Amino acid sequence: MATTYRSVDHPQRHDGEDQREQHLARLNKIVVRGARALRSGKDWEAWLHRAESLMPIGFANTMLIWAQRPQATKLLSYDDWQQNGRQVNRGEHGIWIIAESGGPAQHSQAGARARASVVFDLPQTHGVPVPLRTPPYQGAGQPPSGAWDALASLAFRSGFRVERGDCAEGDSFISWRDRRIHVRRDADEPTAVTALAHQLGHVLLHGDSPYLDGTRTLECHGVRKVEADSVTLLVAARLGMGTPSISFPYVSSWAGTDERAHPAELIQAVGDRILRAAAKAFTCLDAVLPAPMTTAGQALVARTERTAEPPARANAGQASSTNQRTQAEIAQATASAAPPRHLSTASRLQAAAEQFYTGRLRGSWASVYLESRGLGESVQQDWRVGYAPAGWTTFTDHLRDLGFKDADIEAAGLARRSSRTTLIDTFRDRAIFPVRTPEGAVAGFIGRASPQAGKEVPKYLNSPATELYSKSDLLFGLHEARSALARGAKPVIVEGPLDAIAVSTADPERYAGLAPCGTALTPRQVAALAEIINVRETGILVALDSDQAGQKAALKAYEILRGVTDKITAVVLSAGQDPAGMLETAGRPALAAALADRAQPLADLVIDANIARWDRWLEFIEGRGNALRSTAPLIAQMPPEEIGRQVARVAQRLKLEPSEVTSAVADAISRVGTSPKDPAFPRRASGDPGETTRTARNPAAHAALGYPHSARYVVRSAAAEAAVNQPAHPRPAGATQARAPKPHAR
Hints:
By secondary structure, this protein is α+β, with helices and mostly antiparallel strands.
């Protein structure tokens, strides 16, 4: 950028409101001058590269930081640097930014209370090393592995599906009414990724415009093209890719030159919109892709101090070589170090635990045991499986050596008090499976006992509830399944971590195993899944154990899942088998075939299980009547298109006339409220403004608002059709004189 700024004066702190407002006004003038200085397309591109390295901050603060310290790398407040184990060097001048009252500086909002605040750059501090992100340069402009899946996942979460096909003369386009993003089938990987990023820019920036305009497509020109191209450049920069095909016009061509229209304010508004959209893309990319990090310390400080301006585009070969050197430095400097101090203490403890456990898997019984279960070394590495040594305080002593306090270790759930009040390891002599948040952070662990352990030892042990770990909120395998789910894999609810890994290993393109963490499936876990995929369209497969506990879990899962999707299927494996056992005994192809061939509607299992409670009395007419009255409310709560089929099934099973079943179901429907509960999201008090939003996020519940009126007609017409196709079942003589007792509740 050719224009230079005058240095910023750092005024003394003022107590008066007028002085603070004047200081804030001076900072805003600097922002306006910076916006006016963006004239050519190269100026705009240089600002984008500067913003990418400083995100997440708003347009105003990128200009303020650029004016005061163009080579800034990592900015935190004085207190935040102290929490990260570093001190601000004596005599350093802070960098003034505009922050919202009560929170850090992000994207400034109109009307928000703003204040002037001071931050310091990394080279202005000294202390323990901290991580600093480096771009994952691949060489020759190639995107990192998983970039396409990450962007496709973001599109899916935004309500759009990505398809490869014919795009006429372009590389991509959006069909807004069909909610499809089309990318040219024969495009190479870099072109396909940048084309998808461009269309995602339109989705994130202009998602409502086509619907308001009633158009099928959205023309890409003017400020819309500048915004989408800007998001594309930011995403490509985050991925370490070049964008030689993108060129920006003069800023005045879309912002105007008439001062009465306040072009500087328009530039700032456009810049903030772009940064907000890019921040959403960055969140998805950083959660899916492995982010290379360099350990920032005094050596990095010296390098950054000598850097006057950030490179607009780095030479791919040189960047790759530099990245290899820095990675070698990391491996040597952090082989046995504590996790980065920019994380909270609880997060650093969980990261230290994962590193400790995975480092002790090789040579343990856990690795051999998993190998015998069909989970080889590569699978163990992919899932970051570890091993907790058998010693009482082996891990606790390790954490103490890293400088952690006993109170923090206990609060993180990694150690507990013994009967003698001493601190002992929570997990001992167990195979360890990390449980992650959907974004990938380790929240807790599941420990599997040795097969040689006594019966008094619980097979599975979960981390206790902590500030990071709540087993009712987390699904094991959800983070690991994000890429597969984005490609269209079906989520499969299983019982334990070994089952989840087995399902995902059997056919990773078709199935993604997910396991509740030692509890039955909860609404909050389903809500977490619904944040990643469109559950209503994708559907859910349940593959729980065939024993009584597994059946109960399947029935409870149905009660939760029927509120979010009609496509609920179940797989009943052979007696005594679960997915992990089938993988061990029959192999991956057999397990994949079972998931595909043995799936049946879970509603059928629910109805059959309810009727089975009355098996011993079904020879009596009153027993069949009781079974019908018990089953009819379950049918009444099913989707209208499912009711007719269930009426026919129950009539055949109970040897009743379809009209009798129809009447019972119709009576049950008349008692169903017109506003079904949404079991996938926590309920709040009546009148809560968030209630409408949750119903809108749950398409199945929203569609069910037609109950019970539409269902009455469906059940009657379906029953009439069933009466034609099903033979009548005469009642046995004298059956009406027998009385059947009610079954005992189980």
